[in-house]
Design brief:
By secondary structure, the chain is α/β, with parallel strands linked by helices. The chain has one domain (3-203): Rossmann fold, CATH 3.40.50. It is built from 9 helices and 6 strands. The chain has helices at 3-19, 37-52, 74-82, 94-101, 109-126, 138-152, 180-190, 206-221, 225-233; strands spanning 28-33, 58-65, 88-91, 131-133, 161-163, 170-172. A hairpin with a 6-residue loop joins β5 (161-163) and β6. The radius of gyration is 19 Å and the shape is globular. The chain starts with a helix and ends in an 18-residue tail after the last helix. Bound molecules: iron/sulfur cluster. Iron/sulfur cluster binds next to α5.
Length: 251
């Protein structure tokens, strides 16, 4: 295992956790894992951070079995067990609902992820978890920024920390500063028995893929563009934009 890479990712996670006040003494953290590389690496390194933290908090990995055909998390659960983690499995058949409600030819992902979010949020609130960690990384945030700008006409991304509207949940994204390439490289060293997400065979979020490819192309021409995009999100000049709600042009 490349200690240097694991250490680099962990240090950037600690910076994000600290910058956005993601964790505090006594937190009970539910780590929502999908069986993919991002959330799994987040889980392993959060546990390392927990062991070194100057304050006490606990964490539990939780996965949702949505009853997609062929979904099997047994190997993944065993692998986590070997890493000293006890995976909690929630089973809810959202697959049948999605098949039933989404018209033929339309993509399932929107409804599927809304239902998944609702179930995980309820589970966290009912089981006394103070926060939920999600495995979105820097590149996911950049893609969301472009999606919002290009398709919605809004400058917004995924927040590193979010309080849900009903006040029941706090969501954190400890991978906010992590480029996906670091996670890909680290995955090679871990041999995670990944559970693929698109077992349902639906179109896989075409627009997001489009943004991913666009950013990859741009990175070839403008090295460091992904990091500049993230820096831009931390450096908003309201007076140099056009939003009259953010800046008092009259005054
Ligand atoms: S790919 Fe399948 S499992 Fe993943 S969000 Fe879309 S519908 Fe849900």
């Amino acid at each position: 295992m490349s200690l240097a890479l694991a250490t680099k990712i962990r240090k950037h996670m600690v910076s994000a956790i600290s910058d956005y006040h993601m964790l505090a003494e006594g937190d009970r953290l539910m780590v929502a894992v999908s069986g993919g590389k991002d959330s799994t690496i987040m889980l392993l390194l959060l546990d390392e951070i927990r062991k070194r933290a100057p304050f006490a908090f606990t964490l539990d990995p939780v996965i949702l079995d949505q009853k997609q055909p062929g979904f099997d998390c047994a190997a993944y659960s065993d692998w986590l067990q070997n890493q000293g983690m006890n995976l909690k499995i929630i089973s809810e058949d959202t697959y049948s609902i999605v098949k039933d409600k989404v018209p033929e030819g339309k993509t399932y992902c929107g409804l599927c992820s809304r239902l998944r979010r609702g179930i995980l949020y309820n589970y966290a609130a009912d089981n006394g978890y103070s926060k939920i960690a999600l495995g979105h990384h820097r590149d996911d945030m950049n893609e969301t920024l472009l999606l919002n700008m290009f398709y919605v006409g809004r400058i917004a991304s995924m927040p590193p920390k979010l309080f849900s509207d009903d006040g029941r949940n706090t969501i954190i994204r400890p991978l906010a500063y992590i480029p996906e390439q670091w996670l890909r490289d680290y995955e090679q060293e871990l041999s995670i028995p990944v559970i693929p997400c698109n077992l349902c065979g639906s179109q896989d979020q075409m627009r997001r893929q489009e943004m991913k490819h666009l950013l990859r192309d741009m990175e070839q021409r403008i090295p460091g563009v992904q990091s500049s995009l993230q820096t831009a999100m931390k450096n908003i000049r309201a007076s140099q934009l056009l939003d009259t709600k953010l800046y008092d042009f009259q005054g």
